[in-house]
Structures are given as C-alpha cells and as structure tokens.
Amino acid sequence: MSNSAILDDLYATILSRKGGDPESSHTARLFHRGRAKIAQKLGEEAVETVIEAIADNREKLASESADLLYHLLVLWADAGVQPGDVYAILSARQGISGIDEKKNRKPA
C-alpha cells in the first residue's frame, strides 16, 4: 500500500467517525469538542514531535509524527480539506525552489 493510500484510508476512517459517539471513539470526541480543541491537540502533537527530534530519539519521533499526522487529518476533515487538495498543492510545487515558491505566493 502506498503512503498516500495509508493517509487516504486513515482520512476515510476519520470521516466515518464524524457524528459518532464521543464516549466510544477518540476521533468522535475530538469532532464533538470542536475545531479549537482539534487545533490545540495538533499543536500539542507538533511540540511533542519537535521535542523528540531535538532529543534525537528516532523511535519516539516516528511515533509522535504518526500522532501529528492523525491530528492534522482530523483538522482537515473538520475543515472540509481533503488529502487530494493538499496533494495537488504539493504536486504543483514539485520542481520549484522553496525560495522561489515563497516569493511567488500571493499575500494572504
């Protein structure tokens, strides 16, 4: 199974938990708590990922990265962003220098 298929499958599972019982599903509980809580959890996982990277703990870095990706996908699902939306942006950026790409971005 390709890496994108794994993320797509996880995203589909996350979507299936939307509106589910928050007492029986962690994902349903996150949706029930709302986007601010989902974003907070994503931030917490990002910090934990950074800590393990700085500590040079490869195993824990991989584990925290998985948690980070999961919470990012929950946030996407809550906001209506699909993995394909992000894949398309990444694909369009391939072969373009990061410096050039940033120079060409339109101001928000």
Overall average residue pLDDT: 93
Number of domains: 1
* CATH-level-2 architecture: Orthogonal Bundle
Write down the CATH topology. Answer: Helix Hairpins
Radius of gyration: 16 Å
Q: What's the number of extended β-strand segments?
A: 0
Instruction: Describe the largest sheet.
Output: none
What is the helix content? over 70%
Question: What distinguishing features does this structure have?
Answer:
about 0% strand, mainly alpha
Q: What is the topology?
A:
Layout: H1 3-17, H2 26-33, H3 35-54, H4 58-79, H5 83-93, H6 98-104
Helix pairs in contact: 1-4, 3-4
In brief:
The protein is mostly helical and 108 residues long. 77% of the residues lie in helices and 0% in strands. It has one domain (3-94): Helix Hairpins (Orthogonal Bundle).
What does it look like?
- With 108 residues, the protein is mainly alpha-helical.
- It has a single domain, classed as Helix Hairpins.
- 77% of the residues lie in helices and 0% in strands.
- Helix 1 packs across helix 4.
- The longest helix is centred in the middle third of the chain and has 22 residues.
- The termini are far apart.
